[in-house]
Structures are given as C-alpha cells and as structure tokens.
Records
---
Amino acid sequence: MKSFFIFAQLLINGVLLGGVYAVMASGLSLIFGVVRVLQISHSVLIILGCYFSYSVNRTLSLDPILSLLITMPVMFFIGIAVYRLVVAPLKDAPPVAALLAFFGLILALENTIGLIWTTNYNAIHSVYQGKSFLLSGFVFSLPKTIAFGMACLVIFTLLIFLRNTETGRAIRAVSQDRDTAQILGVDVDRIFVIVFGISATLAAVGGSLMGMIYSFYPSLHWSWLGVVFSVVILGGLGQVGGAIIAALIIGVAEILAAYYIGAAWGPFVAFAILIITLVHRPQGLLGTKGQRI
Amino acid sequence: MRFWMTNLVLVLLILLPIFVRDRHLYHILIVIFIYATLVQSWNLPGGYTGYTSFGHVLFFGIGGYTTAMLVVFLSVPAVVTYLIAGVLSSLVALIFGYVSLRLKGPYFAIATLALATIGRYVFLNVEIFGGAEGVLMPMSSFSTDIEKIPYYYGTLLVAVLTTLTVYLIIKTRLGLGLMAIRENEEKAAGAGINTTKHKVIAFMVSAFFPGVIGGLYASYLEYVNPDSCFSILYSANILLMAILGGIGTIAGPILGSAVVVMLSEVFSLALGHQGRLIIFGLILTLLAIYLPGGLLSLKEKFRDPKKTATAFESKTKVA
C-alpha cells in the first residue's frame, strides 16, 4: 500500500513536471512543423529566457509569473533575430549546415550567459518558494503546481491562437502545404518570422517556469536539449498535440527513474527515450507508419 | 610538388625533438595531432558520406576510459590498451551505427549528440568509473624534460595513420561508394551499393582512431574523468575544425585543427575561456552560413567565383 502511495505521488510530480516540459518543447515543435528546421539551439533560448526572468525577478523583485510580462516580449524579438540572422540565410542550404550554425549559436549564447550571470547555480525567488499543500493525502509543491497551471494556460492559449485567429490559421496552412499557402496569398516569410518569435516566447515561459522549480546554471540546457527533442520526436515532429502527451510521459519517466534508479539518472531517461524513438518509431507516437525521417 | 611538401613537413616534425625542447610547444603539437586524428576520422562519415556526427567525442571518451581501466585494474601495458580501446570504440560504432545510420542526416546528427550525452552520464554515474573525479593513472616514468616526446611521436603516428587510412579508403571502391551515398543514397542503393554495409564500415573506421587517440591522451594526462573525456567541447571543436578546414577533404582536417588549436591559445590568453568559446561559436555559425566550404574553398573561389560548390554544399541539394 505504501509503495503504491509513493508511486501515485511520483506520478503527480511527473505530470506537474511534464506540463512544464510541454511548454519548453512546444516552441520547437511549432518550428519544426512550420519552418521544417531542427532548431537545436531552442534549449539555449530556454535557459536565456530563464536568466532574463531571473534578472527581472532580482532587480525589480517581481513575482516570477509577472516577470514573464517583461521577459516574453524581449524573447520574441530574440527569436526573430535568430530567424533573420541564422535561419533565413540558410534557406537553401543543406539541413546539416543549419545544424552547424545552430550549434555555433549554442556555444556563443551559453558562454555569453556564463559571462554575464556566471556559471554558478542560481534560482528564481518567489513568495511561494518551498511551500506546499496537501490534497487527499498527496503533497503538491506550490511552485510546481503554479508552474503547471501556468503551463496549461500558455498551451491552451497557443492552441486557441492557432485554431481561431487569422495568423494562427495562416501558420497551420503553411505547416500543411507551404507552396499552396503561398499561392493563396500567405506571406510565408512573415509567418516564419512570427513562428520564430512565438517559439522563443514559449521558450522564455518554459525556462522561467523551470527556474521557479529547480536551480539552474548555463550548461544545464544540454540536458534540456534531450528533453525537448525527445518530447518533440516522441510526440511526432510538428504535432503539438502529440508533444503534450509525450511531455507528460517523459516528465513521469524522469521522476520515476530518479526515484527508483537514482537521482543522477533522471536526465538520462530523456536521452534514452530520444534514441529509442528515433531508431524504432521515428514517426512518433501519433505519426503514421508511412512517415520516415 | 604537394607530395614533396607533405614529406618535408613530416620529416621536419620527426626531427623536431632534436632541435627544440620547449614543453609548451610539444603540448600544443600533441593537441593538434589529437584533433587532426579526431577530425580526419569524423570526416569519413561526416564529410565523405554525409552522416554528420555531433557526438564523436563518445569514441574518444570510450578510448580514454578503456586505457585507464585496463592500466589501473588489470595492469595491461599501455601500448596494448590503445589497440583494445580502438577495437572497443569500433564495436560501439558497429552496434550504434547499425541501428542509427538508417536515419537521415540531421536526425542522425541528433542521435549522435544524444548518444554522446548518454555516454557521459554512464561514465559519470556508474560507480566503477570513479564518478566526477574519474580514474587516476600511474605517473609517467620519463623525466620531465623529455616526458612529452613519446606522446608527441605517438599522437603524430596515429594522426598520420588516420590520414593515410582515410586517404586509401576514399581512393578505393569503398570510398566511391561512400561518396555516392552522400550524393544520393537511393540512387546509390539502386546502383547496387550495399549502403548499410558501407555506412557501418565508414562509421567503425571513424570510431577506431578516436578510440586509440583517446587512450593515448589518457596516458598523457595520467587521469581520466567525464570532463577530460566526454566534454561537449570536443565535439564542438571537431565540427569547427572540420568546417573551417574544409569538409570532405584530406588537407582540411589538418589545416582546421592546426588553425583552431593555435587560435585557441591566442583567444584564451586574450579573452579568457568563455570569451574564446563565444568567438568560436560565432565563427562556426558564420562559416556554416557564408563559407560552408571552409578555408580550402577560398582558393577555388578566387580562381573561379562562380564555381563554389564543395563536397559539403553539393551533398543534400539533390535530396
């Protein structure tokens, strides 16, 4: 009975973490679905957003959720800059050239972060830090629950935006068939710009929420790289719905591994799932058999 | 002409210890030879076949730990362990390559990046490998003023052997097959090339020499730990050197590693560790965008500005 209780508690923690993972990966999923490039520097944008929120939180002693109001617009423009400076010039280049360019960007940004904020551990402070509440016998950490709620809100807003607005419909049209969308008068380049902006904004939210829950340091983004890619590939590339399910699976798997195998093995899980998925089911959970990558 | 130049440089490098005793110079040359080996090996699947590994450090790390474990726990002579390290790396490449080389280029790149990270976690967290502190190896028995010379010759030998092996492979049918795969894998398969076999062999060869040099480097440092063996910076440096020198060329990896190692020295002094990595990251990004053919393509660009396609550029245009 006790072991079952622990298991259920771990499931709760895993789902709460998975919600944040879903936000972290949704931007990457969006970029892949629409622009069709593997943005491996997405996780470094996540940690950049995390540090921006940290600075706002420190200097203005603002609540981390409120500090997003400043972080998100800043990251929107950084996302656009990434598109304009790195992705657009590589439009006709082989995909590996884009990966190399992103890899360079990772190095440059990670070390810029290290130079500005040092490589020490940091944490975003809030009034609810370290607090928790009990619900039918289970412990809910307050920061994790708030982060999860915020994650749900953001993902819900994203889905509504994609479904019901003019721009959202244009984004989905480009994702389904770029050429036809262009013929029908969609400005594809503008859509790419918007998608990169939104993706970086989502990265900022994901990073800030992670910063509320755990302490962080610049090179932490390498393990997030495993998380976001395993989420996106397990979910089926470009499918935001699949990514949400995959994020919950990976959140739960990570928490379970950390408890039953050892705390150090948590981040290992995402990478293992990533390789297994790539090798055995590259089309993802919801993808059809015909899709090969 | 070029043949004589190469031999002249080689003879000079072999005779160098007679004239020069500067320890720091030998350290730099050893690092250059290590990277030349890594980049040259990386180039076989990466440059000639079109399968870019973003985690080639894995084989270097496996080599390092193999040597350290065998020397410390089983007292195997170090020279023997280098070969075992190479063979073990090749075996890992065989298993991983067999399952992952089916993936197309960018996905293969991500799989290798993930595998290298997994390797780091395993060596960091499995107790026998000594955790973050790693494994200490017995001290060198050479006196301090000549202790670097054996490693100088060792790494030079491995770098030369790697270059020769890659050169011989690309001159044979195997190499032609690899390049056919790079240009168009479906058509290569249609022409009767066993693409899986070709790719796996290329990947195994490209893991062997990093394994050997990883073992040598472990002896040279006299310790191994996850950072000395599995740092992502090795993979980053390999990519930077490959693209700077010229992907898919024989001279490129040598040029690239020499230039980047020397720039590292200068930038580290001038800008510090982080400043250097920021500059290197930016250089990598700019090269990928504006000069994907590397320094070697500059020569062709001046000769014929229109014809700039290099091996790297022509690679996936057809796909």
---
Amino acid sequence: MKKTYSIFRWELKKIFSNWHKTVTLFLLPAVLMMLALNIFPLLINYMSTGSFSKKPIILVGAPKSFHDYVNETADANVYTYKDLSYSEFNKFIEAEEKMKELLKGGTVICYFGSDDGDEDISFDDIVSDYYNELAKGNSEATSNAVIFLGHDGESLTGQLRAEQFRRGVLDNYQASLIDRLGGDYANIGSNLFSTDSFNPVTKFMDNRTPADRSASRIVPGMLLIMMYYCVYSLASDMFASEKERGFWAKLIMTPVSSVQIFAGKILAILLIVSGATYLTALLLFFSSWLNTSNDAMSLLPFGMMLTPSELLILIITIPFTVFVMTAACISTIFSLKKMQDITVNLQLPLIFFLGDFFIQMFRGTRPMTLEYFIPMHNSLALISETYMAQEKLWHVIVVLAINAAVAFLVLRVTFKKEGLYDKSK
Amino acid sequence: MIRVNDIHKSYTKTSETIKGVSFEIGKGTIFGLLGPNGAGKTTLMQIIATLMKPTSGTIEIAGMSPEKDLLKIHSLIGFLTTEIKLDPVSTPDDLFDFFADLYDIPKNEIKQRKEKAFNRFGITPFAKRKISELSTGMKQKISIAISLLHEPPIIIFDEPTNGLDILTSRQVTDYLKELKSEGRCIVLSTHIFSVAEELCDEVAILVDGMIVAQGTVDELIKMSGEKNFEDAFFKIYVENHKEEK
Amino acid sequence: MKNGNRKIWFRGARTIAGSFFKKHGQMGAEAPGSTFLISIGFVAVLSFMALSWFWWWFPYHLFSDEVYDVVVVNAPQSFIDYNQYMQKYRNMKARDYGSRTNWFANWGHMSYFKYNYDGYGWTKFIYKENPALYDFVTYGKWMRENDAYLTVVFPEGFDEKVSARSKDHELPKPDILTYYRTNSLEYTSMKNDFIDQYLHEYQDYMREKNNWAFPDVVDSQIISEPLDFSDEEEGSNVLLDNLGRTFVPILLFIVVLYASMSAGTNVIAGQKELGTFTGILMTPVPRSAIIAGNHLGVTLKTLIPSFIFAVPFLAVPYYWNHGALGPIILHIIILTVFVSAATILISVINDTVVSAQTAFLPVFLIFISVCVTCIQNATEHEPFYLYLPVYGQFYGIGDALAGHPDMAGMAVSSLSTLLLAFVIVLISEKLLHNERYTVSIDPVTAKEIRMAKSGQHTVLDIADKITDTFVFTVRETLYPLMILGFFQMIAIVPVVIDYMGRAEYSRFIADLKSVATVTDVMKKTFEVLGIFMGNPVFLALMTVAYVLMITACIIRTKITFHKKDYKEAFSIAGLPLSNAKKIVKDYLSGFVFGLLMMSSVCLILKLTGQIEITGFGFSTDLLPVFLVNLLMWFPQGASEEVLFRGYMIPRLETRFKKVFAVFFSSLLFSVFHSLNAGYTPLASVNLLLIAVLFALIYLKTGNIWITCAMHTAWNLSQGNIFGLDVSGNVAHASLIRTSHAAGAKDIITGGAFGPEGGLAVTAVTLACMVIVIVLLVRSRNLTRNKDA
C-alpha cells in the first residue's frame, strides 16, 4: 500500500515538475473549450455584425406603453431593440434584399398598429379607446389593435426567436395593457392576481430548463472526449513510453509487486484526469453563467444548474469512467509491441468518442436500456440524463458497476497475458 | 546462487530463441555471457533477471523459485541494461529517492547511500540537474548507481560498458571487481573480449540459443587451441553456428 | 549549380513523401482485442441510437415516476371551492384515460404520451399552511412527501385583497407564488400549463362567482407572421439537405483530422525520439525539402481515406446532380493541406510522439468547436463565415452538397486557408533551423543568451516586463478580493436559505422586486448584511470563512515563495511560529494597544459631546450572537492582516520598493473597506492611515501578531463593547449601548460608517503613527550605530 503511494506520488511529481505539461493537461483544454464555446462565436458575431450582442428586435411604431414595459421588466431587457417609425419602416421594406438577409439571420420584426394599416393612430390610443368604450358600457366595442411578429418562415432561428420573444415579452406586455391603459375598466377587467412576479427560486428553475437541456446534449460528450484525451496521453506516457525506454523493466525489477505499480499509476491517472475533467465541467458551468442569453439557440444558455444529488452523480461518474478508459488503454498498450501500433490503436477510440459526441448532440431521444450496459458510453448516457434531471438510482448503480467491473476484468486479462510471474502472491 | 536448468524460450510457435540452457553460478564469481548479436543473450539475461518467464525449464535464485518468491528475489537482484533510458524530466536525486523508497531502504540510510554512490561516480555536482541535460555516460552511471542502491548480492548486467568512454568504462570495471571482492555474484553479457578476459571467472559462449562452450577464459583458449581469446571465440562460433536456410 | 540544388530539393522531398507509402502503413496497423471490442461497442451505440429514433417512446416506461399532485399553501376559500367544483370534470377525464400506471392498457395513448399539468384528471390537491411565502425548502419537502410536482402559495388574505382591488385598481395585485420540483425538466412546462390553464380558469370562476362584469376583453391581437421569400424546396430533399450540411462535413472533418493525426504526429517527433532524425538532417537535402516532403506525405496519406469516405455521399444522386464533386474535392484537399501543416508543426515542436500527441489536443478541440458552432446554425450561417479558413470548408461542403455553392466564398476561403497553411509550413521550416527543435532537447533559451551577451534590453523585453508587472499587480490585487468574495459567498448561501424560510421576512423579500438602480442595490445589500450580522449562524460561518481564508493565504505563500514546509510559509506571511512566548506577549500587547486606541476615540467622542451612553448590557437572548461575534473578530482581524500585510507586502516587495508595497497594500485596504455603507471620503483617508499605521508596526516588528491583535481589539471593542458601527456594519450585541448625541457632527463621529469615517479616529491614528515612526527611526539609528 505504501509502495502504491510512492509510485502515485512519483507520477504526480513528474507531471507537475513540467508546467508545460500540466497546463496542457489541466487548463488548456478546459479554457479552450470555454473560449471556443463563448468568446469565439461572439468575436465572429462582432466581426460580421459590428455588435457583441445579438441582433436587435426591430420595433415598428412601438407605443409608449411598450417602452414603459421594457424599462420596468427585467425579462424584456434581455433583448436589444431598434426603433423604427412607420416611414422608416417603409423605406426598410423597399430595400428588399437587405431586409431578406436580416430576416434570414434571425432578425424579428415587431410591428405595432391597427389591423387596417392605419398609421395615424397609435397602438396605445386604439387600446385605451377600446377600454373607454367598455367602461361606458358599450359591450359591442372591438379593438383592432394588433402586433405583427415577422420572421423568416424558413429560418429555424427566426422562428425560435419570434416564439421566444412572444412568450417572454409580448404575452406579458399584452396582459399588462389593461392595467396601463384600461382606465376605470381596470378595476374589474384586469387580472385579479399576478403569478410569480418576484420569485427568484422559480425564476432560476425556469432558466434551468433550456440551459440544462442544451447542456445534456453538449457537456457529456465534451467531458468524455476530454477524459479520453487525457487518459490516452497520460497512459502512453506512463506505460507505453516507459516500456519503450526500458524504465518499466527497472520498475518491475524492484521488490514491489506489479499490481502495486499498476495501482499507483492508475491512481495518478484517476486523480489527474478527474481533476482536469472537474475543472472543465466547472468552466463549462461558468460559460453557461457568463452567457447572457437563455436562448435555446445558444450553445450553453444561461442558468445551467444541478441539484446537489445530480452534482454528486456527475462527480462520482467521472472517476469511474476514467478508470475504465485507463484499463482499456493499458490493455491496448500491453497487448502490442510497436509504439506506432499502440498510438494508432489508442487514437481510434477518440474518434469514436467524437462520433458519440455528435450523435448525442443530434439524437434528442432518451437512451435505450441496453446503452447503460456499454462501458464508457453509459457514462455519457448517465451524465446526459443527469443534466436532463431524469437520473435513476439503478442507472447510476448499473453504470458504475459495469464500468468498474469491466475495468477490473480488462486489467486482469491484461495481467494474465503479460506472461509475467504472478507477483501478487 | 543462480541455478539455471534446461531453459527453453520461444516467442513464436515455430522457432526457439533459447534452446535448452543450463548452468550454475556461485557466490563471488563473475559469470560472462558471450555471443554474437541475435544469439539470445538479452533474452537469457531477462529470464535470469525474472523479467521473463521461460517456456520450459526452471531457474532458482539463492535457492528460491521465482514462481513462489518473486519479490524476495527482486530485492536480491540488481538489474541493468544500456537499453534503459531514465525519465528526462526528473533529477538524479529524485530518481534515487524514488527507487530507494521502492526498495524499502530505511529513511536515515538513504542519504548516506546516495552520498556514497554519487561520490563514487562523480554524480554529486549534477544531482539536482534534469536527466535530459546530462551526458550519455553520466546517465549510464546514474543508472548503475540506482540499480545497485539496495546493495544486491546478485547483479545482472547487460552490456555494462556499452557506449561508455574508456575512463568511465574503467570506473565501471573497477567497481565490478570491487563488488566481486565483496562476495557478490555477477552475471554480465558483453561482446567486448577485453572486458570478459579481465573480469570473468567463468565464461559461457552462447550461439543460436545454446551454450556451446563454458569454462574459464584460459580453459576455453586451451580447448580451442587458439592463441588468444578472440580467436578462440571465433573458432567456437564458426564450429557451432549453422546457417539457417 | 542552382539547377543541381533544385534537383536535390525535389528528389529529397519526393523520397520523404514516398517513404510514407513504402513502409508498413499505419492504417494497416495491428489491432488488439480491446480495439475490436471498443469498435463493436461503438457500432452498438450507433444501432441503439437508430433504434431509439424509431422507438422513441419505448424506454419511457422505465422512467415513469412522474407525479401529478399539487400542494396548495394558504389556500383561500375560493380556491378550495373551485377545486371542488372542478372535481367532477377531472374524475371524468381520469375515467376516460384509465389507470395512471398501466401503460399497456392504453397502447394508443402511449406513442404520443406527454407530460401534462393535469391532462388525465389525476391531480390531487394537498392543502397546507405556511406564513413564510419564500420557504422553498419546506415546499420541496412537502412535494416529495406528497408526490406533488407543484406548490402554489397564496398570500394571506388573498380573497379579501382580490375583492378590495375590484374597487380600487391602484392597490397592488395579490401575487401567487409557485414552486416546482427539480427532478424533471418537464415540470417547467407543467407548471406553466397549470398557471395558464388552471389558474386562468380559476380567475374566470372567481369573476363569475362575484358577478364582476366580465366580457372577454380582447384589447389587442398578437399575430405571428412567418414571412416566406425563399423558393420552395422539395420536401423530401430537406432531410438530404440537412444531412449534407451537418453529418457529411462533420464526418469528413473527423476523417481528415484522424488520418492526419495518425499519419503525421509521429513523423518528425518520432524520428527525433528514435534518433534517426539527425541522419535525415545530415543528408544534403535542404530543410525546406524535409518539411515539404513530410507535408506532402501526410497530405497524400490523409487524402486517401478522406476521398474513400466522400465517395458514398457523392454517389447519392441528389448530391451528384448538384455538381458537388468539384467543390468537395477542392474543399477536402484544402482542408487536408491545412490540417497536415498544423500536424507537421506540432511534430516539429515536440521531441517525443507522446508529447506531440498531447500537443495535438488544442487543434483537436478547436476543430470540434468549429464543427459544433457550424452545426448550431448550419443553414442560417452568416455569409461572413464562408470566407474564413476552416469555417469556409465546413459550410462550403454543406453548401456544395445542397446545391448552392458560393464561388466567391470558395475561392476566398481556399486561398486564405492555403495562405495560413503556407505560413504554418514556413514556421515549421524556420524552426528546423533552430537547434532547440532539431538536436538538443533543452538548451538555454535564445533570450537568455542575448541578455547574457549584451546586457541590453530590446523593446520587446521592456514591453514584456511591463505586461509582466501589470499582470503581477492585477493578480496580486485581485487575489485577496477573490478569496474573500468566494468565502463570503459560501457563508451567505445557507443564511439566505434560512431567511427565506422565515415568515417575517416574506414581505422584505417581495419588496426586493422594486430594486432596480445601482444605489438601490447597494442600499439593500447593506440592509441585508445588517440583518445577517445578527444571525449567529452567519457569524459562525464567517468565522470559518476567515479561518479558511488565512489557510488559503498561507498555502499561496508557500507556493509563491517556493517554501518546502508550512512553518516557513507562516513566518513569511508574518506569523512566525517559533517563539510561543513572544507570540503571546506580542498578541496581548497588541490587544491592549488596540483597546486603548478605541477607548481614546470613544473618550474623545464623549468629551466633545458627540455620543451619549444610552444603557448597559443586553438581553440574554442576544448572548449567542454576542459570543459568536466575539469569536469571529479573532480570525477576521487576522485574516485581513495576513491578506493585506503579511502576505501582500513581502509579495509586492519581490518586485517593487518597500514604500510602494506599503502604500499600495494600504490603498487596497482602504478601497476594500470603502465599499461599505455610509461611505465618506474622510473614511477612505482614515482607513488608509490606519492601514499605513499597521504596515509600519509590521515593518517595525517583522510580524503581524501585534497588528492582528490590534485589528481584532479595535473591531471588537468598537462593535461589541462601545456599540459603534464597524466600517458601516451595524453591531447587534454590545456591552455598552451608545448613540449619536443630538448635535453630533458626522465629520467627527463618521456618521453611519462608524468612527472610522470621522475626525476622532484621524486624530488618534495620527498620534499613534507619530509614536511608531519615532520608534522606527530610533531602532534604525540604533542598528546603524551598532553597525558603525
């Protein structure tokens, strides 16, 4: 046991004595991922649109009540707006190509007015006239106030943004009209109560839903790729190149059983890779929280959140996955002789994980039951469903047990094949 | 101390690398294993060092079988080949401490031994430098110092002076003689005849996985009827080697 | 001669490129059983995924733990009535749908099953009472106990408020709060459905019941207008289009990346490791030819699998008819050239295959993120992307397959990518002239040699130094702030949860809604902190936080000063542990000194008639707060001293002069404390003076035991003995209760900030400073005399 610790400490020391290596292993991937996910698209966006924020919502003939509403409501402040008068809007329509392009990029146009196209009377006036009539007892009164929400019908982004803007802002604005413009009629006509007008807890959880949905598509795959890459480069350093250099023979010749040597090295890999992965997960979490939009289209929307039990599952799953990956790498390394063969065979799973990552991004369905029994991939399924808050205890148990069991089995078979004296006795 | 009993080793199904080797080495002797490249020297050395299992046959080290008391045997053996490259980012100091720890040397003794070993080979001024910054000879010396830090009674050296300059080579041979005088049993493989002549009490010539001649250097010269050892070796080799067709 | 050179160049390059195809290829490498098993696993994953698309509802029975019940807190009579009224409809629905747990009885429903707020009439209502409206912990417990997914919290007197508002709509609307369970994301929409449908109908019910005139008001309409400009595409080809824009480019990217990685990372690095690279360098082949040959080899070797993978897609008639062949081949070639160039560069920089592979990770990740960002908006990409390297290839492949190749984009992106690849190749070639990357593993850096040679600094070195200093300063400035912020955050979380569960604070929390401006936020924050200061849990947590902060500081000292053990780190951070007797002596004397300073401040205030004593002692229920508060001041004082004096001054001294170190740390201390409530400019000055005084004492004694004690004694006596405000924080439990006298002037007392904001403290601090400076000068003279 003491010797295992010696080996473990030695490996750690070796890694940390070379800060280049440490940084490449720990920080660089995580930071790069965060940059790639957030700042890079942001910069590109800046270069192409000249603004860091998203495309504004184009408001046409927006009434005072709407501006008031935007000023008072935090939700509405998330969007940026560009005001156009009716005449400006007409010019805008004439420049058809430009408008098409804007709309294609997901711009949403929000037009306030009357449905007969009368541009002389403002939206507010139509609504308050309507309520005046109602208050006077004219039950036949009608309002032709209308808000058109224009977006590109072909563009998924435009459709989603329009839908989101409608749900997040316009519907609530409409509901508030009676309080703002209803006059006497508001006494009875306005809503009798409001719901969750200030409820930070529920607000957090409402944000969590789109954020975690997105995260469940992206984060698990990212973590798995990250884990495998680290395991693979550490394993080829600790086993393959030591074997190549003959240093391995020197270790084996010490009166320390090979099981202990393996255990020490595996522990070091476990610790380092789990640490790096936790860091990546943390940075991905930050990238979500740095993102200002809770838009379903952004990669990691604002508000990613895990309950303590979900966090625990994530934290426990990672080392188990690293363990089974390490076992697979060790098995590959010790069943091949040539360094080049080892390299190619160690890289291949990386491509599979990449494939798995993209599948996870697209599939949109829950995993089939048998997927929990495929080692390594089952961790992806588990982490993904954990982000979806669909985790089940038996899934966790199956995944952890399968991974640990497979890892032990693989290591056992590898030891047997090694042709060494069984040193464990 | 070492008893090798009819050892066979084959990597593939059709050919054997070691084809039945037996010998015995006693305390305080230096046993030299000579042979051309590809004769199976390294394989045999690795089998003796218990790094490899023979396909058939047994070996016994200090009366113990590696099947049973492998770890005990390991603490009795110092093993060294030129093939070993040390980890380039560590320092000699760290390496020594690490292996001392693995060999279970008591803490208070480590420092003493390190000083002694490092002084002997002139490593001390480089003790805190990275291995990658050191010269080849220095690396080899560090390797020797580390391999012998547990003061093993049995020492297995694969080509101990390979790649060393004359000065360093001399240091190493002197050290080997000293070790012998301390009553240790040394097995070394080499193809440098002067080394073999100077050091070895007993020499075995390995050709195509078989020991074709064994005895002291003088005995072998006498047996072959040549004047010097080099010619003797050559004659023995030609007599025994069969070209494979 | 020139011609001969060229000949050698070409022959060398050709030979090296050819060598890629002569030796036993890597693609045909030996594969062990583990690779085989992993591949089988991947195929299994693929098939399961495909299966899950056709059978998407299948595993749902394994997850069916969704709950439907609702907890209603403080339910008004009207809501209870409404629930009873609705019960018969819900019963009907439940009967129609059948059993909630027997899925197979409802085969027809199963394939379109969706969570719903009460689509099946299964909801039961559980009535509870709780005056604390924001007590989400309790609600969570109730929901778990009762199989409920939702808690609806009514404010007290809901019915009365509603009817009062029917007479005067200026009254605030009663606000219903909802909380839902975390264990499924579906509950969000279930909650929204509940609000939109059930609560909406409840409102209609109330109106009807109360005979409030109620025509269905339609004051305005919102109309979503999908605008259609694009030429209609054939529906069946949409799938192929999407595949062509996402799946195909990703696959080709992966193939190129992997093939290039396995062919390229080990070429030069591998040869270096084996020692054969020197042999190649020794041949008369120029280095540019070596790079070119390797680049060509890797490119060609990568192209083979890439084309093989491209063929099946090009063979699809839909893509073929778009004339995708030419553009795709071009894009693949360009991409391969680029990736190979990057691979060669990595191979040149690294000495071993393993390190080359590790160094490949960033390239790998960048490519993944390019793919990810590209497929996020595969069809609606900005035209700008078409001209960028790598992005251009991704979108180019997609556009070509979909039949909208953009010639200009193709040309620009190809050229820019090639240019980039060329630059990378050029860099690799230049690096081969540097011995660091050819023969020697770890030589002295060129910069060091230059410095040693001339002793001069180039402009670059100076710029280097400036940025270095800047980064250092920023880091050292931010470090304490970050530590403190982090630990305070951790301490605040449980306390916030505690207060949310208290009924008396519900009003307070609801009022936070009106917080909008920055000043409001500041004001509320201090109000909240003021409340927290009276909470023993918070104080205890802060105590722990301060202790952790000291620990973090010591650890950082150990790391930044490269100390082997913690004892040394402690003494560097101004807390030498060697002499216990001296520690006690220093600490006690510091404590007394601090008490004396504060007492003299109070004395001045009392004598000038600025404060008056209103009473002594406190009620016993404040005792725990008082005790915990006392306990907190010890680590609190120590932690600030370690941060701003013990750690920061020696740290800054490694770069700057002592005077600057003292001044800078004191300034930071002052700014740090000036953020508190009731801030006055005089407070900043005072805090700066105090900080300088402490720093001087630290310099005089060489340790911070005294200042730790002074700091603690100061805050303790101020808050818990004399009952004054501590830098803007209200003290809750003190032995003597004081208040500002009627005619008190804020300039002397410091007003709401506490005495640190007033002239009284200035006077006392200045007096002390004079004493310390005199002592310092004298001791310096003494040592100087001794030296002489």
